[in-house]
């Protein structure tokens, strides 16, 4: 995996594996608001997937993996992926229930969450923008107290770079803004990074996912990941969305 090199602010050279960082002014989307409109809850276990429609979440739905809290919700998941060949990676996530395309308009996505429990092994995943081909066009993960963005490049290349840090209270507040020409701004706890998305991916149907997930946890013994959300938002401007298949 190639690392993203830091370059002067507002330079956009994704094709060469570059990004830029600068401080961003707080936006109105940072206001505390946990809004599950347009989201479903997906509870993925090793042998199957349970989907809870957003309307049930708004009616104070609760179970072992999803629990409403004051002003938000706590999500938990097993972290270990079973060793059997067909087993799924467990995760509990809030996923948009309509697809959209990068090229169709502006998307503003974001969340504020507290990290309640990190997996002892593997990598904690905070958020993804996922295509209908199950390719992550953006993945935000934790590396210690650093938040790392990973994106696909051309010819199978992968790019990654640090885009912010977890604050001292264990809170991550992030915003993602995508634009139809293929630019993307990622703001993590007030630090912004800018990227260009490969043009061949701008027409792919995608959706935003965020929740409790680990990857690469292949140890023995139980392991958990849990986060508590106090803000969740997904706004689309000029997007012709298609229902999730």
Order of helices and strands: EEEEEHEEEEEEEEEEEEEEE
Mean pLDDT over all positions = 83
Estimated share of beta-strand residues: over 45%
The tally of helices reads: 1
In whole angstroms, how far apart are the ends? 31 Å
Q: Outline the low-pLDDT stretches.
A: 1-28, 241-245
From the alpha-carbon coordinates, what is the Rg to the nearest angstrom? 17 Å
Summarize the main sheet.
Answer: 11 strands, mixed
Q: Write down the overall geometry.
A: globular
Specify the helix fraction band.
Answer: under 10%
- Content-based structural category: mainly beta
Got a strand count?
A: 20
Give structural notes.
There is one protein chain. With 245 residues, the protein is mostly beta strands. It has one helix at 54-57, and strands at residues 2-3, 5-7, 18-23, 39-45, 48-52, 66-69, 72-78, 91-96, 98-101, 106-117, 123-131, 136-143, 146-152, 158-165, 171-178, 183-188, 191-196, 205-215, 224-237, 242-243. Strands 1, 4, 5, 8, 9, 11, 12, 13, 14, 18 and 20 form an eleven-stranded mixed β-sheet that branches. The protein has a nine-stranded mixed β-sheet with strand order 2-3-17-16-15-10-19-7-6, with no helix packed on it. Strand 4 (39-45) and strand 5 form a beta hairpin. The radius of gyration is 17 Å and the shape is globular.
């Amino acid at each position: 995996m190639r690392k993203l090199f830091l370059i002067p602010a507002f330079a956009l050279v994704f094709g060469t594996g570059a990004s830029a960082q600068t401080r961003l002014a707080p936006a109105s989307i940072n206001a505390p608001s946990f809004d599950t409109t347009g989201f479903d809850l997906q509870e993925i276990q090793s042998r199957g997937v349970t989907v809870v429609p957003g309307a049930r979440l708004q009616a104070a739905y609760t179970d072992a993996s999803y629990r409403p809290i004051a002003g938000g919700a706590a999500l938990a998941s097993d972290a270990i992926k079973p060793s059997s060949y067909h087993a799924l990676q467990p995760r509990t996530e809030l996923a948009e229930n309509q697809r959209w395309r990068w090229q169709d308009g502006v998307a503003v996505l974001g969340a504020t969450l507290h990290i309640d429990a990190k997996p002892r092994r593997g990598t904690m995943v905070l958020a993804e923008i996922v295509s209908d081909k199950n390719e992550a066009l953006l993945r935000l993960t934790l590396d210690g107290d650093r938040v790392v963005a990973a994106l696909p490049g051309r010819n199978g290349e992968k790019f990654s770079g640090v885009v912010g840090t977890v604050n001292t209270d264990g809170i991550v507040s992030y915003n993602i803004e995508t634009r139809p020409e293929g630019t993307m701004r990622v703001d993590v706890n007030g630090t912004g990074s800018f990227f260009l998305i490969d043009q061949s991916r701008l027409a792919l149907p995608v959706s935003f996912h965020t929740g409790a997930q680990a990857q690469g946890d292949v140890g023995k013994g139980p392991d958990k990941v849990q986060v508590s959300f106090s803000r969740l938002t997904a706004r689309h401007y000029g997007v012709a969305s298609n229902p999730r298949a």
